Amino acid sequence: MATSKQKQNQGLNPFPPPSKSAPEITEQQIAERAYAIYLARGGADGYDLDDWLQAEQELRQQQSTAA
Distance (Å, rounded) from C-alpha 7 to C-alpha 39? Predict the structure, then answer.
């Protein structure tokens, strides 16, 4: 039997699915942008995660401003 707290939380998803109207950003798109960031930085190694996260953020911002 569900408690009152469980009933309150039913149907609440803290991570809603992405909007169906906006196309999903692919790993390929992120990888290509991350590589461009890597090259723009002079190809210095050791920043792969930083490049990936920056690329993902940039693409998501572009997506949200285009919508």
Answer: 51
Coil, strand or helix at 30: helix
Question: Do 54 and 37 meet the contact criterion of CB atoms below 8 Å apart?
Answer: yes
Distance CA 34, CA 13 (A): 30
* Token pair belonging to 19: 């909007």
- pTM, rounded to two decimals: 0.65
C-alpha distance across the termini of the chain, in Å: 43
Q: What are the start-end ranges of the H helices in 1-67?
A: 4-9, 27-40, 48-66
The 10s digit of each residue's pLDDT in 46-66 is: 999 999 999 999 999 999 888
